[in-house]
From TrEMBL:
Gene: tpx
Additional observations: The active site is a conserved redox-active cysteine residue, the peroxidatic cysteine (C(P)), which makes the nucleophilic attack on the peroxide substrate. The peroxide oxidizes the C(P)-SH to cysteine sulfenic acid (C(P)-SOH), which then reacts with another cysteine residue, the resolving cysteine (C(R)), to form a disulfide bridge. The disulfide is subsequently reduced by an appropriate electron donor to complete the catalytic cycle. In this atypical 2-Cys peroxiredoxin, C(R) is present in the same subunit to form an intramolecular disulfide.
Gene3D superfamilies: Glutaredoxin
Protein name (record): Thiol peroxidase
Similarity comment text for this entry: Belongs to the peroxiredoxin family. Tpx subfamily.
Active-site residue list: C61
Provenance organism: Chryseobacterium takakiae
GO molecular function: thioredoxin peroxidase activity
Disulfide bonds: C61-C95
PROSITE patterns for the chain: THIOREDOXIN_2, TPX
Purpose: Thiol-specific peroxidase that catalyzes the reduction of hydrogen peroxide and organic hydroperoxides to water and alcohols, respectively. Plays a role in cell protection against oxidative stress by detoxifying peroxides.
Entry keyword set: Antioxidant, Disulfide bond, Oxidoreductase, Peroxidase, Redox-active center
């Protein structure tokens, strides 16, 4: 049932598979930099781009957060939600230093998001962190696009993810 991806060419596995196109995403309880819990309800009526990654403290993760932040400002009724296992304080510090104002950056440090969305890494030195993935939904929380990035060190396909919103 797991998905096989790689980290610098070495096999790594996730707990399962991303949600299928057309399915409704599950609720979640993620924590923002102010230690407030955010759930699906906080983003009602908005299209959502989940930018999921192992840690904000790696160059590829930081690049994806910056790129989606740039693109988000031009999208109507859309929210980009960065999700990782990083502590809320680290995420807040990164966003403040980078001036990332057009995205929500939320921590999965005490929730089941990784397991519920089947992006938890099950082996390798990265065991327990989230894989690099993108899930895009419409305003009704139906999945319209997914990408499980096959090589963790690679950036996601931004153009395809953003095109799914149109």
């Amino acid at each position: 049932m797991s998905t096989t991806i790689t980290l610098k060419g070495n096999e790594v596995h996730t707990i399962g598979h991303l949600p299928s196109i057309g399915t409704t995403i599950r609720d979640f309880a993620l924590v923002d930099s102010g230690l407030q819990v955010k759930t699906l309800e906080n983003f009602n009526g908005k299209k959502k781009v989940f930018n999921i990654f192992p840690s904000i403290d790696t160059p590829t993760c930081a690049s994806s957060a910056r790129k989606f932040n740039e693109e988000a400002s031009a999208l109507e009724d859309t929210v980009v939600i960065n999700v990782s296992k990083d502590l809320p304080f680290a995420l807040g510090r990164f966003c403040a230093a980078e001036g990332l104002n057009n995205v929500e950056t939320l921590s999965d440090f005490r929730s089941s998001f990784g397991d519920d969305y089947e992006v938890t890494i099950t082996d390798s030195p990265m065991k327990g962190l989230l894989s690099r993935a993108v899930i895009v939904t419409d305003a009704d929380n139906k999945v319209v696009y997914t990408e499980q990035v096959s090589e963790i060190a690679d950036e996601p396909n931004y153009e395809a993810a953003l095109a799914a919103l149109k």
